[in-house]
Every structure is written in C-alpha cells, then in structure tokens.
Design a protein that fits this description.
209 residues, disordered N terminus, binds FE2/S2 (inorganic) cluster, alpha+beta, 5-stranded mixed beta sheet, 2 domains, Ubiquitin-like (UB roll)
C-alpha cells in the first residue's frame, strides 16, 4: 500500500519528469529558433551577427552568435547583472526585462530577435542621479525583499503593470506577477509593494489616496 510519503515522492518524481520534459522542449525551441535564424541569414554555426539595441537609453552595437540569448548579452556582454538567470526555461521570471514596452523573459529571447529594440532592465528603472523609482522605494517600505534574487523581475513586472493600469486591483497585481516566482519573501509583501507604488505614483510620491 502506498503511504502519503510515497505519494508525495511519486508526485515529486512526476513533477521532475514534467519539468525535465518542459526544459528539453524549451531548449529545443530556442535551439530551433537559433537554427532557423542562421538558415534565414544563410550563415554557418558560430558566425557572428551585428546587433544594435538600446539598453536603458544607451545605444549598444555588438556582434553576437545566433544562439546567444538577450539574457546573455545583458549579463555577459554589458555587465548588467541585475537581470538574473533562475530557471533558464521561461518559468521563474527572474530574467524579466521590458522590450519595446512589453515584458519578456530574456532567457527566451534570442539576442538577434532584440535587434533594433529598446530594452529596460532594473538598472534603468532608477533616475540617472540614483534616485529610486517609487516601485523600488515601495518594495523597501513594504519589506518585500529578502534574498533579492526575484526582485528585479518583480519590480519590472510591477513597472509593466503600473504603466498600463495606474490603479490596479489586487487580482490584477497577482496576475501581473504570476510569472515571477519568489522562494523567500512570500507574495503578500510584494503585492502590497506594488499597491503602495501605484498610490505613490498617482499622488506624486505621497502614499495616501
Ligand atoms: S531565467 Fe528566464 S524565466 Fe527563469
Ligand atoms: S526575495 Fe528571495 S526569491 Fe524573492
């Protein structure tokens, strides 16, 4: 007879199996996209492509391989280490950035797909003089940061939401951060931080409605 523990183990094994399958599938997808891009450009593996993009308001011109991801360009070429790599398969949201006004998982975007785009990373959220964005202030005030690994992605998901919905409902906030996983703070403080930031942004820095 199966104990609860056995059931739990079976469930974990099943989840691990599913995750591995999804992981392989996602890697096949991005690999296939890279091959497709190479074939389209009539190039050989390893050949470099010119890439032009604007990151946090600065024009960048680089040479990239077909299989390089936007995440690799941001972290390894440009040294923008605020964008994190968690799962690498589009599931945790740690690598979230804004690309041409839309939130994306940068681990799932080929660098070549970002050609001529405008990217906002966490480093570009604060003012040039270092003044924190109301969202960053709100995350601190609400106690929404522990290890901080998920926070750049959470802040950018909040940023994307508040740009579209200045006064979001709790459900809308939950929906907006549903692709961002936090393993330590818990979501209550993060939801409160996004609400607080919305109030501050609507009221010129004042957090009262
Ligand atoms: S690292 Fe991109 S979604 Fe997890
Ligand atoms: S604060 Fe640690 S993962 Fe979210």
């Amino acid at each position: 007879m199966c104990s609860n523990h056995d059931n739990h183990d079976n469930h974990d094994n099943h989840d691990n199996h599913d995750n591995r399958r999804r992981h392989n599938h996602d890697h096949r997808q991005i690999g296939a996209a890279a091959e497709h891009y190479s074939a389209e450009q009539n190039t050989v593996p390893g050949q470099l492509f010119p890439l032009t993009l604007t990151v946090n308001g600065h024009l960048q011109q680089l040479s990239v391989r077909a299989d390089e991801r936007l995440l690799d360009v941001l972290r390894e070429r440009l040294g923008l280490l605020g964008t994190k790599e968690g799962c690498g398969i589009g599931e945790c949201g740690a690598c979230t950035v804004i690309m041409d006004g839309k939130k994306v998982n940068s681990c799932m975007v080929l660098a070549a797909q970002a050609h001529n785009s405008s990217i906002l990373t966490i480093e570009g959220v604060e003012e040039p003089d270092g003044t924190l964005h109301p969202l960053q202030e709100a995350f601190i005030e609400a106690g929404a940061v522990q290890c901080g690994f998920c926070i750049p992605g959470m802040v950018l998901s909040g940023y994307d939401l508040l740009a579209r919905r200045p006064d979001p409902t709790e459900e809308e906030i939950k929906q907006a951060i549903s692709g961002n996983l936090c393993r330590c703070t818990g979501y209550r403080q993060i939801i409160d931080a996004v609400k607080l930031a919305g109030r501050k942004m609507r009221n010129g820095g004042n957090d009262e409605d």
